[in-house]
Specification:
335 residues; mainly alpha; Na+/H+ antiporter like fold; globular; transmembrane; Sodium-dependent bicarbonate transport family permease; membrane
């Protein structure tokens, strides 16, 4: 009963979070017939600013990490980001009534990483006195970017085949290249390079960090208005997204926990690091994912991937996933 109450509290908290609250606000004003529109140029500027900030933060974290010790866990993170998208492509995206690009975008969002869920995981580990490598928090770009790139590539391949005919051979590399050169991923990769190879701390703390939450709230408002226009597409298959969002975080986290355990025995990856790897695999992006997917898979319905992530996926990942992985770590490693 206590677990259910905790989950309910997390669910209500997510409804009040800026990410979901502004999304729902956009849906509400669109439903009431508001003519509010945000110019596309402003939308693109907001996406650029947000992803540049996220990239810089990840690049700075990688720059401070022990690259040698980080190598195997980073490779596992890359593998997990791709695996989550592939599993979603051949499960959720094939279910009755679900548009394939909606299923792929949702899988991409669940393959990408939530910074807030990662932060919650570190807080719980510290409160439990379980040590972890300082660089473990820098694993998220290694899972985040491959998941988003792969989701965009798979959706692009599907849509191109649909347009040109199922029998036509599709060249993969031009699609990968085009995805990496897209505005969203370019901003993210540029941010990582700046954080890794320059020293942007002062401008990051004084300019990008203070603006971040405000810009994110406007972005969610825009996506809420857009989502309302596509709400009818989602109503008949919403239960499939809810089922996926309830199962995927725990399944993904447990797979990552198993792979992290292998890294523990091979290279001494700490039990706390294994837990954090599972936490980021079980999370779903609330920052980098939505704008990247909106730009990279414009035909996908934002209400499918954002709604399933923020309303179900994140509460499951935090309220059920984090205690589960810590309990496993204590049972397996005696942490």
């Amino acid at each position: 009963m206590e677990v259910l109450l905790d989950f309910g509290a997390r669910f209500v908290h997510q409804l009040q979070s800026p990410t979901l609250a502004f999304l729902l606000g956009g849906i509400l004003i669109a439903a009431l017939g508001s003519r509010l529109t945000i110019p596309d140029a402003i939308y693109k500027f907001i996406v650029f600013m947000l992803l540049l900030k996220v990239g810089m933060k990840g690049g700075m974290a990688i720059g401070e990490a022990d690259i040698g010790a980080m190598l195997l866990p980073a490779l596992i993170a890359v593998f997990m980001g791709c695996l989550i998208v592939i599993i979603g492509r051949y499960t959720l995206a094939l279910l009755p009534g679900i548009r394939t690009e909606d299923g792929i975008a949702t899988a991409g969002l669940f393959g990408a990483v939530s910074g807030s869920t990662l932060a919650a995981g570190t807080v719980v580990l510290e409160s439990e006195g379980i040590p972890y490598e300082p660089w473990a928090v820098a694993l998220y770009p290694f899972m985040d970017i491959p998941a988003l790139v792969l989701a965009i590539v798979l959706a692009s391949v599907y849509l191109k085949k649909k347009k040109d005919g199922a029998g036509e051979k599709v060249a993969i590399w031009p699609i990968v290249k085009e995805s990496l050169q897209g505005s969203a991923l370019s901003a993210l990769l540029l941010g990582i390079a700046l954080g890794l190879f320059t020293n942007p701390d002062r401008v990051f703390e004084s300019f990008y960090e203070p603006l971040f939450r405000g810009l994110l709230s406007v972005l969610m408002l825009i996506m809420g208005i857009e989502a309302y226009a596509r709400l009818n597409e989602l109503r008949r298959v919403a239960h499939w997204f809810a089922v996926y969002a309830a199962i995927a975080p725990l399944m993904n986290g447990l797979i990552a926990f198993g792979l992290g355990t292998i890294a523990h025995y091979l290279v001494g990856f700490s039990p706390g690091g294994v837990v954090l790897l599972a936490v980021i695999a079980g999370s779903s992006s609330d920052i980098s994912g939505p704008p990247t997917l909106r730009a990279g898979i414009p035909t996908a319905n934002p209400s499918s991937y954002i709604g399933s992530s923020t309303s179900v996926g994140t509460p499951v990942a935090i309220a059920l996933g984090i205690p589960l992985y810590i309990g496993l770590a204590q049972a397996v490693f005696g942490a």
